[in-house]
């Protein structure tokens, strides 16, 4: 039984090896070698190439691959047939070995065939285009063809296939991106880009050369991302819309795709910064928002939380985005000259509510940590200190502080940001309160009275250091006789052990718990201010009193008395007094009496509580004036410190160094620093020598 190879039907397998061996053995190697070349060339030209060229477009690659596999197998058979020639004549004559010869002949007669060479790239590109359009193709045909080309002639892959492939891809994606930009919203477009990148990566890894993958990915990035980058982020459904709608998945997809291109991250960052600044500016400059400062700061904190989540979850904690958000907050927070006051009011409101709510003490530390982020953006931290000092005093004196630990925690945070000089007086205020508790216990012990169970008025005095606590004009108030007697006894006790000190009663800062029985027999404990207590006690001996009578009996200034009476008689559900006539205006001849019909579901009733309120215009001006006056001395001290260290310095250098030293507390205007320099020159601390300043004091 004989096997006849495909390439030469005149030879059979049983006699072929013997004939080839004999020819090589007897010196006919050249004739055998040239005959092999001639036979293979004729076979490849007349049968193989003709068969491939005759194949239709759809069968072209399949026929090419089928013929290549046959040829590859036939070469193995031929090599075995002429093994002796391959090892003797070919080696001695420096001819091309049989296997390499077969490959060369295939390349020259098939691949380099004019028609096949023209059709092959087009066939590959056509089938790849069909796959991009969603059609399922036989990937093995493409993969085998690519392998064949790379095996035979690597340069042909790059020249005849890769370059046309990349050029066609650029045209395809340029057209597709334009259509998608017109038809899709931003999120859909980004999903398509993501899909195309995934497909090209998979396509390249499956049947393209490794060197092609980064090139085709670069084409997709350039045509679908880089050329439409600005249009994408500014679309109606683009970046701003995603921020407003909290579409974090699409936002992350945009960041992931645009960061592939030069300038992509900065394009996103610039628009995020612009949007945040505009949003923040509208928020802090809106007149309606300023009327509710606590809600304004809460909204600022919510905005900060939102962008922190975006940076961490979407932008991968990119430091440039963190810097952009920080500079944006610093920009718009300082657009409102009252931001320092508003943040202090928010802190005050938080600490007061935490003292009343269950679980509030556990949450207050989280809130304080968030507030400190806003505090860092303030350029007038010294103004915040003035307001915070005032609000802290109100909390401590009204017993509304959440806890000593919470207050000290906040002070410690402020100290870390601004130094111990910023917080030393705040710490002393807490010390005064603790010291006062010991004093009041000693007072009652000296009287032989149990302060909890004693009869008559119970005094809880707070002894405050005048130079530490915020000062303000005191409202005169004549205390009831029984209360006045207790106060005088305390004065005698305190001065007996602190003879060099002076006590001044600040009744307007105090509160009182008053037990009140109404006409229906209901008993309530009213938590009121000292002035309100003085008014209420008058009704123990009188049924009806006019505003003028009350003013004469208590000596409370009329404007303060009117505010006091309004809170007692004109607040719904808190009107323990009745007013005639019944309106919100208080006149001197208005008559007041006890509201016997007053009821409340609570035993303890707070009237006109000392909740943080927005400062009056005059108080705001006074606080700012004090801050500016202190700031002058701080600038002077900073200038002197710098000049003592440098001895000689020019104007710009001196202004920059002073601003750097003061930044933890305040960011002064360079013009203010220059005026302080001129003041020190006038006082002969410095000398100006042609714009070179010298320390001479």
From TrEMBL:
Domain Cullin family profile: 338-569
SMART domains listed in its UniProt record: CULLIN (SM00182), Cullin_Nedd8 (SM00884)
Annotated GO MF terms: ubiquitin protein ligase binding
Keyword tags: Isopeptide bond, Ubl conjugation
GO terms (BP aspect): ubiquitin-dependent protein catabolic process
Keyword Ubl conjugation carried by entry: yes
Keyword Ubl conjugation attached: yes
UniProt cross-references to SUPFAM superfamilies, sorted A to Z: Cullin homology domain, Cullin repeat-like, Winged helix' DNA-binding domain
Highest taxon of the lineage: Eukaryota
InterPro entries: Cullin (IPR045093), Cullin-like_AB (IPR059120), Cullin_homology (IPR016158), Cullin_homology_sf (IPR036317), Cullin_N (IPR001373), Cullin_neddylation_domain (IPR019559), Cullin_repeat-like_dom_sf (IPR016159), WH-like_DNA-bd_sf (IPR036388)
PANTHER family: CULLIN
Family: Belongs to the cullin family.
This protein's name: Cullin family profile domain-containing protein
